[in-house]
Amino acid sequence: MSPYSTTTRSTRKNRIESLPIPSRKDENYRFTSLSNFNLQQLNPSIAHPPKTVEPAPEGFQLAACTYPGGLAIALESSSHEGLHLSPFEDAPEAIFQKHRAAFDLPQALDADLFANLSAGRCENELLIHVTEGKKITQPLFLRNFFPSTDQAFYSRTLIILEANAELELAQEFVWDGIESLIQPFACGLTQIVLGPGATLRFSTVQNWNPNTEHFSRTYSVLQEGSQLTLNEVHLGGLKNQTRHLTHFEGRNSQSLHTVTALAQNSQQMDFWIDAVHQGVGSRSDVEVRSIAQDKGQIVFNGKIRIEPTAPQTAAYQKNPCLILSEGAVIRTLPKLEIQTDDVQCAHGASISSVDEDQLYYLASRGIPENTARTMLIEAFKAPGLRGVSNPFTKSWLSKNLALTEEEQ
Amino acid sequence: MKPILEIQDLSVEVESKKVLHHVNLSIQKGEVHALMGRNGSGKTSLSYTLMGHPKYRVTSGRILLDGEDLAGMSPSDRAKRRLFLAFQNPVAVPGVTIASFLRTSIRSVRGDEVPAKEVRKLIREELAGLGISETFMSRFVNDGLSGGEKKRLETLQLRLLQPKVAILDETDSGLDVDALKAVTSRIESLRSPDRSFLLITHYQRMLEAIRPDVVHILMDGTIVKTGDASLAKEIDEQGFQSIHEASAQL
Ligand SMILES: Nc1ncnc2c1ncn2[C@@H]1O[C@H](COP(=O)(O)OP(=O)(O)O)[C@@H](O)[C@H]1O
Ligand SMILES: [Mg+2]
User: Is B17 in the pocket of ligand 1 (CB under 6 A)?
Assistant: First the structure.
């Protein structure tokens, strides 16, 4: 009998029925229309395991591959002391008992339609657990693979790091590159629990089929002195809504969160990032770097909430934007809710196109105008690697950001 | 002999403001010309126009480099024809390291003339010559550099790109005595029968180290006087006022 009770799934399935489809009047859906959204058509797929499994990028070990309707664990749990990797059903009793709440949805996502869809319809949830004090030095790699034969892909991942544990993780969202007439729908939920003093460095690259409608939810709870470094690159999808909700529960917990978004053609990317500070001296630093071209649209809906229990908090949200075409649209919607004194908060957004004087300067040194333009766009993307120290992660992200790596 | 750089009847507008009026100036191969003038007289506008800044619109006249009309030519193509401008206020380019900038630039301008292996060595020698530490290379172009460091970086590029015609826009401003010495001696040693200079400066100091063959005075976008090195000295002693009065009487 597995400790993970599948009643969570059925509860969440029922919850879906009672939730309305958000409309554009809904604050956070102002720029993500769900008018043609039909839940009945988006049933989970039957599992088709990928025929070939690509190896992980250099320096990483492939840990698991999730695909519509299925999950393949690629790494024996015993391969790293202190690491447990399995479907929820195979979660050890002790882990399940200790983190029972995290196996369900948090209250804060109880009314979130897409979080419920992931929790209710995903039947192959992945658990990653690192035991207290264990540092997994080998960077691990997760792949979410969405073949063009499938229409709907629900995934769910729970990452738990016990006190003082450490993990470096990378995750890619990819498709098989085969064009089809199916309109793909991807819905993912990631929950992160960092125990006291734990450190998670997590990089993701979203490179879905450019026709995908993609909704992802990430909920993180940071306990005392824990550290979360997130680096995200968003390249694919047609209509994307990415929601992050982070609770800084513990004193001195901190996160460094960097998003690089490239929207081209008619891609829409809608980021909805909330930092909720509850612990004294906690710190959040969010930077969404948006690049829009053609008719691409990027929205950054950022909220900082500082509760009365969190003096000496520092919270920053920045949204530097680069517009490369006249038809591209970028919006920043910042919100601050500060309920205590003695805090440092800053919201900043800047929108510019490629700077003519910089272009002229590079060109005056013989650098062809097109190359100079590319150099300036790369320069804008380069801070997407903020906080990344592992050389393999750096080079994997650089490749996905199309950055020229510095010659040695 | 055909001049290496010939400016004929050049008038220029920027942001619909007329900044240069019928400027004529010819530089022969190997010559050093100095261009002096008050702030706002149009010196930087002239140098930007020569290098092909898209905002500076030529409304009359033309610019010939080694006999070739530069009209419509992009800044990068001008650089490839070995025209060089050291900027008065070079712009910061955060995110682009000096190392990758210099390498891309040398490769673009000099092609295979310098083998890739040599480039690094060349840069290292030039850094040493200008008293710049090698750690400088990993910094971003002009980003957070002091005024003096920017001028040194401009001088470094001048040396690396080996132009036929170099325009130096106040490369001597804002330098302390030692830096000025290092910079001027690195410029002076580039002087050769195959290279010409247009030195834009306010100061006699630089012109003592790099003695000009010809001196021009620019005033309100017009060249009002041309002479030899003694003209620079005269300006240094009497200021632009005397010239201004003399030209007003014409
Ligand atoms: N980009 C520009 N936009 C508007 N006015 C300009 C611009 N560049 C130069 N000017 C004007 O042209 C005149 C000449 O300026 P500049 O060429 O910088 O002179 P100098 O280098 O001799 O000090 C000044 O009146 C200046 O304000
Ligand atoms: Mg000037």
Answer: yes
- Apex A403 CA angle, A401 and A405, nearest 5: 135
Query: According to the model, what pLDDT value does residue B248 have?
Result: 61
Compute the count of residue pairs across chains A and B with CB atoms less than 8 Å apart: 82
Min Cα–Cα distance to chain A from B178, Å: 27
Those of residues 142-161 in B touching chain A at CB distance below 8 A are 157, 161
Average per-residue pLDDT in chain B? 93
B16 Cα–ligand 1 center, Å? 12
Q: Does A362 touch chain B (CB under 8 A)?
A: yes
Q: Which residues form the domain of B52? A: 5-89+164-248
Q: Are residues A246 and A378 in the same domain?
A: no
* Residue A408: predicted pLDDT: 44
Range of the domain at A35: 3-250
Unique residue bearing structure tokens 């393999």: A392
Tokens of A278: 């509850």
Token readout for A190 is: 């990631």
Kindly state whether residue B115 falls inside one of the protein's structural domains: no
- What ipTM did this prediction achieve? 0.96
Rounded-to-integer distance, Cα B50 and Cα B38, Å? 19
Number of structural domains in chain A: 2
Packing angle of the helix pair B147-161, B116-129 (nearest 10 deg): 140
Whole-structure pTM value: 0.91
A354 touching B (Cβ < 8 Å): no
Q: Identify the pLDDT of residue A40.
A: 83
pLDDT digits (tens, 9 = 90+) for A122-159: 999 999 999 999 999 999 999 999 999 999 999 999 99
From the list A366, A382, A404, the residue facing B76 with the nearest CB is A366
Last residue of a domain, one of A208, A232, A250: A250
Residue A155 lies in a domain: yes
Give the pair of three-digit tokens for residue A141. Answer: 């790699």
Q: Is A384 inside a domain boundary?
A: yes
| Whether residue B54 has its Cβ less than 6 Å from ligand 1 | no
B227 or A49, which is more confident: B227
Chain A residues with beta carbon closer than 8 angstroms to that of B52: 363-364
Q: Is residue B195 part of a domain?
A: yes
End-to-end CA separation in angstroms for chain A: 56
- A352 to chain B, any CB pair closer than 8 A? The answer is no
